C-alpha cells in the first residue's frame, strides 16, 4: 500500500494536478488562479497580494492581448479524463517529420494521432475540407505563416512581397520586413501577382470582416485561427483553400501551448516547409502536441449546439457581450463599433474630435487596448479583446460605459 501511495504521489506531483480544480480561484478569493507550478496565486488585473484580496482602483485593465481568458473559465471546471499525466519517459527522442499526407503513414504514432484527431475536429465542426491535403504541425500559427512565406518564395525562385488588406494584424508586417524570403510588406494593389503572397484572415483581426483576395492570381495563405463556432460571427461553412492555418490558441484558448497546424494542397511545398520547421525549432514539443490533441478530442466529443459544451459556452458568452456593446454604442456620436458582431474583438472607431490617439484615450480611462496608434494601417481606432474572464469583463465594461457616456 505504501508503494502504491508513493507512485500515486509521484504521478500527481509530476502532472501538477494534486489540488482540487474548484480551489484554483477559491484560494485566491476569486480574483486570481492558483498555479501549481509556482504554488502561488497569480492575480487578475487590478488585484494584488498573496491571496489577491487587494483591489487597486488606479490600475489599467489589459484588454489588448488576445488571450482566451473567458475560454479558460470553461477549462477551470473540467476534470478527468481530460487531464494529462505525462510520464518521465514519454517520447524523449527527436520526433520525425511532423508533416503527414492525407492517407499517408508516419513512423510516429503521435503524428498519426494528430492527423486523425484534427481531421475529425474539422469534420465535426464543418469548417475545413481536409481531403487531399497534407497536415503540417507547427509552433503556433505564427511559425506556420512564416514557414509558408519561405516555402512559397522558394517555389517562386525569388523573394515575394507580402500583402494583406488594412486593417491588418501588425505582426504580418514584422514577418515580411524581417524575412530573407520576402521583399517586404506592401499595401500596393498594382503589383504583378506573381511577385505577391497575400495573407487573408477570416474572420479578420481586428475587425471581423470576411474578404476575398485582392490579388486573385497571387499565392494565398488563409489565416483561419478565429474561424470556429465561438468567434466566427457567422454560421460555419466548409473552407476549401490551398493553404489554411489554425491554432489551439484561438480554437480552445490554449495560447501558451504554442500548438498550430495547417493544411496544404500543393505537395511541392512540403520539402521547404519541413526544412524550415526542422531547422528553426526541430518541430513541436511532444507535450504540447499531446495536451492539445487531448483537449481537442474533448471538444469533438460534444455537440457543438449543446449550451454546456465548450463552443456552446464560449458562443453564449460572446453573444451576451456583443449585446451589451450594442446597447452602449447605439447612442454614441463619438465612438462607433465597426467590427462584426460575435467575433473576438471590439474594433472601435473614435471620432476625429477626440484629442490624441484612440488608444491614448482608452488608456487614460484605465483600459489598455491594442493598435490605438495606427499599427494596423488604419488610424483612429482601438482593438479590445472580448475573450476576458467574467470578473475582468465587468470591470472593462464599466469603464467602457464611462468613456462613451462622457464624450
Ends apart, CA distance between termini: 69 Å
The main pleated sheet reads as: 8 strands, mixed
Q: Give the DSSP E fraction (strand runs of 2 or more residues).
A: 15-25%
Q: Return the average pLDDT rounded to an integer.
A: 90
How would you spell out the order of helices and strands? HHEEEEEHEHEHEHEEEEHEHHHEEHEEH
Indicate the low-confidence ranges by residue numbers.
Answer: 1-22
Give a count of the beta strands, DSSP E runs of length 2 or more. Answer: 17
Structural class call reads alpha/beta
The strand order across the widest sheet is 6-7-13-12-11-10-8-9
Query: What's the helical proportion of residues?
Result: 25-40%
Helical stretch count?
12
Global Rg: 22 Å
Shape: globular
List keywords for this structure.
407 residues; alpha/beta; eight-stranded mixed beta sheet; three-stranded antiparallel beta sheet; 17 strands; disordered N terminus
Overview of this structure, please?
- The strands form five sheets. Strands 6-7-13-12-11-10-8-9 form an eight-stranded mixed sheet, sandwiched between helices. It has a three-stranded antiparallel sheet with strand order 14-15-17, with helices on one face.
- It is globular, with a radius of gyration of 22 Å.
- The protein is built from twelve helices and 17 strands.
- Residues 1-22 have low confidence and may be disordered.
- The longest helix has 20 residues, at 310-329.
- It starts with a helix and ends with a helix.
- 41% of the residues are buried.
- Helix 4 (109-125) runs parallel beside helix 9 (286-300) and helix 5 crosses helix 8.
- It has helices at residues 2-15, 23-26, 69-76, 109-125, 140-156, 171-178, 248-251, 270-281, 286-300, 310-329, 358-364, 390-405, and strands spanning 32-35, 40-43, 47-48, 54-55, 61-62, 99-100, 134-138, 160-163, 182-186, 196-201, 219-223, 243-247, 260-264, 335-337, 345-350, 367-368, 381-385.
- By secondary structure, it is an alpha/beta fold.
Amino acid at each position: 500500500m505504501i508503494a502504491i501511495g508513493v507512485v500515486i504521489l509521484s504521478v500527481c506531483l509530476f502532472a501538477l494536478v494534486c489540488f482540487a480544480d474548484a480551489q484554483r480561484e477559491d484560494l485566491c478569493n476569486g480574483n486570481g488562479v492558483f498555479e501549481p507550478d509556482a504554488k502561488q496565486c497569480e492575480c487578475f488585473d487590478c488585484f494584488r497580494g498573496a491571496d489577491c484580496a487587494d483591489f487597486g482602483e488606479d490600475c489599467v485593465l489589459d484588454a489588448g492581448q488576445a488571450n482566451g481568458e473567458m475560454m479558460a473559465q470553461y477549462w477551470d471546471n473540467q476534470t478527468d479524463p481530460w487531464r494529462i499525466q505525462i510520464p518521465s519517459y514519454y517520447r524523449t527522442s527527436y520526433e520525425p517529420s511532423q508533416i503527414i499526407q492525407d492517407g499517408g503513414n508516419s513512423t510516429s504514432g503521435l503524428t498519426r494521432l494528430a492527423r486523425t484527431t484534427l481531421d475529425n475536429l474539422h469534420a465535426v465542426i464543418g469548417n475545413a475540407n481536409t481531403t487531399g491535403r497534407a497536415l503540417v504541425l507547427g509552433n503556433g500559427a505564427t511559425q506556420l505563416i512564416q514557414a509558408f512565406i519561405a516555402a512559397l518564395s522558394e517555389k517562386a525562385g525569388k523573394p515575394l512581397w507580402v500583402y494583406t488588406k488594412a486593417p491588418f494584424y501588425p505582426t504580418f508586417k514584422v514577418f515580411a520586413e524581417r524575412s530573407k524570403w520576402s521583399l517586404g510588406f506592401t499595401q500596393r494593389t498594382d503589383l504583378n501577382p506573381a511577385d505577391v503572397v497575400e495573407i487573408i484572415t477570416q474572420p479578420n483581426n481586428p475587425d471581423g470582416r470576411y474578404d476575398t483576395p485582392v490579388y486573385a492570381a497571387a499565392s494565398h495563405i488563409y489565416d483561419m485561427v478565429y474561424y470556429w463556432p465561438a468567434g466566427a460571427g457567422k454560421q460555419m461553412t466548409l473552407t476549401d483553400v490551398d493553404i489554411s492555418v489554425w491554432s489551439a490558441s484561438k480554437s480552445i484558448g490554449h495560447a501558451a501551448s504554442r500548438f498550430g497546424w495547417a493544411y496544404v494542397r500543393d505537395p511541392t511545398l512540403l520539402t521547404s516547409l519541413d526544412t524550415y520547421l526542422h531547422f528553426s525549432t526541430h518541430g513541436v514539443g511532444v507535450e504540447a502536441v499531446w495536451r492539445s490533441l487531448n483537449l481537442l478530442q474533448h471538444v469533438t466529443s460534444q455537440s457543438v449546439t449543446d449550451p454546456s459544451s465548450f463552443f456552446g459556452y464560449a458562443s453564449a458568452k460572446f453573444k451576451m457581450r456583443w449585446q451589451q456593446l450594442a446597447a452602449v454604442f447605439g447612442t454614441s456620436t463619438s465612438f462607433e463599433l465597426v467590427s462584426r458582431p460575435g467575433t473576438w474583438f471590439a474594433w472601435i472607431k473614435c471620432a476625429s474630435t477626440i484629442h490624441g490617439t484612440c488608444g491614448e484615450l482608452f488608456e487614460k480611462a484605465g483600459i489598455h487596448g491594442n493598435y490605438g496608434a495606427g499599427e494596423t494601417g488604419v488610424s483612429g481606432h482601438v482593438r479590445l479583446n472580448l475573450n476576458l474572464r467574467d470578473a475582468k469583463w465587468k470591470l472593462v465594461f464599466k469603464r467602457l460605459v464611462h468613456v462613451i457616456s462622457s464624450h
